Amino acid sequence: MAELDSTLKMLKELTDANGIAGNERAPREVMKKYIEPFADEIEYDNLGSLIAKKVGDANGPKIMIAGHLDEVGFIVSQIDEKGFIKFQTVGGWWSHVMLSQRVTITTRKGEEIIGVIGSKPPHILPAEARKKVVDMKELFIDIGATSKEEAINWGIRPGDMITPYFEFNVMKNEKMLLAKAWDNRIGCAIAIDVLRELNNVKHSNVVYAVGNVQEEVGLRGAKTSTYKIQPDIGFALDVGVAGDTPGITPKESTSKLGDGPQIIIYDASMVGHKGLRDFVVDIAEENNIPYQFDATPGGGTDAGSIHLTANGVPAMAIGIATRYIHSHASILHRDDYKNTVKLVVEVIKRLDRDAVDKIIFG
């Protein structure tokens, strides 16, 4: 791999860190390292979400911009007598993308043990069974242990975190970035760089850049962090489905890598706030920032929890089109990352009490 610039080094550290829902310590420490120089204060909610506060006007509206720290993964559920690992998914998985993939089991002491997801070979399956998606219950992880006792002696216990084994890569087209955990370390990276860009900029708000926990299991950390912040406006920064690979029709998705941030108008967790959406689109057009609309009826973002907190928070999700989400490795476009940071910064620069009141009350 060619030498990485400072942004790519940050993205590599964020995505290479292992952290599923309920076990986000490693990516949280990376996010803290990069965002702390630009924050006036770092605090946490009691579930572990990181909240970095940056004051423009202490009397201004509170603006929350949130990625989530957790990635999809698994936990150890059982160790059988032969030393094979049974596991529970943490977040949404499709068994087709799991077969023969390498994983990392992280023990309580922090040791990382490599394994591979296995199943019965097709050679001994009936013809009909070969055509079906493998039942998740039939999968297991082979760590090379010869017995249950050996696996236990290595420190493996039920509840240990399991994550995809994959390393960040810049592809031959250097705009294309390949990594695990883009969902949603890219949102955390955007939050970091927004605070970086606001470091010497005057604005009329109190900005909270957040790395939420436990998004992949029901938008949970966003409930507690939003309750702690009590924001006036909320943005979830997440990935979205890319529609530019073979087999995807325009009816399913029109989003393309490199065409700018996705303005999410609707998903399974919320209807994007119309006043806020119009405000964001106007700013994108005024600043010649490319954008694309998207709807994701089969998924949700932390905006789904943000907008229902207390007496309601005008909120929306801004996404980055990403190929192969909820698998071992995903691809996104660096320009989309750059333009999303630019868009969020410009939105914050134009928000003030009058603008927020207009968004809420029309």
TrEMBL record:
Pfam families: Peptidase_M42 (PF05343)
Catalytic center residues: 215
Molecular function, one GO term: aminopeptidase activity
Cofactor(s) needed by this chain: a divalent metal cation
Residues engaged in binding Zn(2+) 2: 183, 216, 326
GO BP annotations, alphabetical order: proteolysis
Keyword Cell division attached: no
Keywords: Aminopeptidase, Hydrolase, Metal-binding, Protease
Transmembrane domains' residue ranges: none
Family listed: Belongs to the peptidase M42 family.
Full protein name: M42 family peptidase
